Amino acid sequence: MKVETAVEALAALAQESRLAVFRLLVQAGQEGVAAGAIAEKLGIQPATLSFHLKTLAHAGLVKSRTEGRFVIYSANYPEMDNLVNYLTENCCAGDATQCAPRKLC
User: d(Cα 85, Cα 6) in Å, to the nearest integer?
Assistant: First the structure.
């Protein structure tokens, strides 16, 4: 991962509502959540949610698909794993045996 990509992803997550949206999508799994349900669960106005989802999508952290008249959003797990790997690639002074095992999504 390039440092610019990591910075963009971290910047997207560095806002309370966007972090809440991303965490909700991570918990939801591959099935994802409809935009309306995200707004309802988190108490975010639709226009504001749209702005946050666009920011997360631009950073590569979420994906969307259309099902009928609904837009379903889901976490982009490979990109999330790339970000975590980037942040931890040199952890524990380069001795991976010191680091706790981490599951990939």
Answer: 10
Report whether 83 contacts 1 (CB < 8 A): yes
Contact 40, 49 (CB under 8 A): no
Alpha-carbon distance of 1 to 5, in angstroms, equals 7
Pairwise CA distance, residues 73 & 28, whole Å: 10
pLDDT tens digits, residue range 21-76? 999 999 999 999 999 999 999 999 999 999 999 999 999 999 999 999 999 999 99
Relative to beta strand 70-75, strand 62-67 is antiparallel
Separation between Cα atoms, residue 70 and residue 103, nearest integer Å: 31
Domain range annotation of the chain: 3-98
Strands 62-67 and 33-34: unpaired
3-state DSSP assignment of residue 95? coil
Q: Can you name the CATH fold of 3-98?
A: Arc Repressor Mutant, subunit A (1.10.10)
Q: Tokens at residue 32, please?
A: 């994802």
